[in-house]
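Hi V.,

Quick status before I head out on leave. The structure for the redesign project is tokenized and pasted below; the design run finished overnight.
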């Protein structure tokens, strides 16, 4: 795989070809200032400055050429506006015309050249990658960190379940701890059954090779605000005894997408030294089938003491998250963010592009939404409608784990809210973590959705003047 850090470099006057950015509003003025041969070439090719529209134009010398690229707004570059040219251009070095700063577009430039090749032989391009020069090296480091975190989510989600089980998630967290000086704490076996009974119940059928566990990572100074990041790590979901059809299992390697987001957000926090006390929690399980699988009709006790009647073993992610959220709440953090590929109902509601966002705090939700809009990582808020709480009522337990035929994403979020400590600001991302069709810089497969929105919100809240 390409080293993304090599794809954006400081502009030290290196020889490079030029990329001219033109939007529809500025096209007429740009054409007036262009040499006649360029103007005629663009007219002949009917160049209209649509987003991602690219033309190569001749320069003054025989071997000289430049690129004219259409963008939505030349004065405010979005993350993916350079992605398509980064995919299509010849290998070499490029800079933006008129000393334009690439800003967040560096993220799309780098990610456009990232590929998941762990299981497929790919011939390397002998000429090397496409390199973008930037006159804003301070922003370069932060942009590349975001690109690499996004690529890590993609790689984790794309990896098949046999190689991305609970032990692999534990090793990913352990590597973070080693790299950034964090403290790793993993609970398994009898201790897991005692202290996190719902996590244990969901994962016990997978056996010793894929044994369930709670993975915790602590990092940062004790006097900094505590932030808890929680991820659903269901490494494969057969549905349990309420087994999914074969078609429903095809993408279930991605059911640990919430854990991938949580790990990547933790990496950003530690790598860029956000002044918080980080508490990362990942419930890592495989929802399998065997003689000791949990059953429909069982009643599980939770870490919080709430009893849960199982209406469907395929509604297992909320059980794993329930114990994680209860544990996270005990330390009274400043906020809790959780990520999960939780419900198909969220995809019906908002489609594959948008993570559904739920929160018990309007300021927290507003901050996440505005940050997502600002950085091109949009989210959509759905309501925690208390009127639906009776949908997951149980005759023999405190609550059930299913909410009936309606409002599945909302009732799942309401279930999770029961395990959040009273008065603690909490936000829940029900994310798809998968892109079904490719776009520039965003190939089909695992995808980070809500990651950059969360990171920018945390950075603006806890480090408003980042270095």
């Amino acid at each position: 795989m390409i080293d993304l850090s090599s794809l954006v470099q400081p502009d030290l006057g290196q020889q490079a070809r030029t990329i001219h950015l033109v939007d529809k509003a500025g096209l007429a003025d740009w054409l007036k200032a262009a040499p006649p041969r360029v103007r005629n070439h663009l007219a002949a090719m009917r160049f209209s400055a649509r987003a991602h529209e690219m033309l190569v134009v001749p320069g003054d010398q025989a071997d000289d050429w430049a690129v004219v690229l259409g963008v939505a707004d030349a004065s405010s570059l979005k993350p993916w506006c350079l992605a398509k040219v980064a995919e299509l251009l010849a290998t070499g070095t490029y800079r933006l015309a008129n000393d334009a700063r690439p800003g967040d577009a560096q993220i799309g430039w780098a990610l456009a050249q990232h590929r998941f090749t762990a299981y497929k032989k790919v011939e390397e391009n002998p000429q090397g990658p496409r390199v973008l020069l930037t006159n804003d090296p301070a922003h370069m480091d932060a942009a590349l960190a975001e690109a690499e975190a996004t690529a890590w989510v993609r790689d984790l989600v794309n990896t098949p379940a046999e190689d991305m089980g609970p032990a692999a998630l534990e090793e990913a967290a352990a590597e973070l701890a080693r790299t950034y000086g964090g403290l790793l704490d993993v609970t398994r076996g009898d201790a897991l059954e005692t202290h996190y009974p719902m996590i244990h119940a969901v994962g016990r059928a997978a056996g010793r090779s894929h044994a369930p566990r709670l993975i915790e990572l602590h990092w940062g100074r004790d006097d900094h605000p505590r932030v808890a990041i929680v991820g659903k790590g269901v490494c494969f979901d057969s549905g349990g005894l309420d087994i999914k059809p074969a078609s429903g299992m095809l993408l279930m390697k991605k059911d640990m997408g919430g854990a991938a987001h949580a790990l990547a957000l933790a990496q950003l926090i530690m790598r860029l030294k956000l002044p918080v006390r980080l508490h990362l929690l990942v419930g890592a399980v495989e929802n399998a089938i065997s003689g000791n699988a949990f059953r429909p009709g069982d009643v599980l006790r939770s870490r919080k003491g709430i009893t849960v009647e199982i209406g469907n073993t395929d509604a297992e992610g909320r059980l794993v998250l329930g114990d994680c959220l209860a544990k996270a709440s005990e330390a009274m953090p400043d906020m809790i963010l959780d990520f999960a590929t939780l419900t198909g109902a969220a995809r019906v509601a908002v489609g594959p592009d948008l993570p559904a966002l739920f929160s018990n705090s309007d300021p927290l939700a507003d901050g996440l939404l505005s940050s997502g809009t600002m950085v091109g990582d949009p989210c959509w808020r759905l309501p925690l409608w208390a009127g639906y709480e009776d949908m997951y009522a149980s005759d023999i337990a405190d609550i059930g784990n299913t909410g009936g035929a309606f409002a599945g994403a909302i009732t799942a979020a309401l279930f999770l809210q029961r395990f959040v400590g009273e008065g603690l600001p909490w936000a829940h991302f029900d994310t798809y973590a998968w892109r079904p069709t490719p776009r520039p810089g965003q190939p089909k497969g695992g995808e980070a959705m809500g990651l950059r929105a969360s990171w920018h919100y945390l950075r603006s809240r806890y480090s408003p003047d980042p270095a």
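Above is the designed sequence. The two ends are 29 Å apart (CA to CA).

G. will cover questions while I'm gone.

Best,
W.
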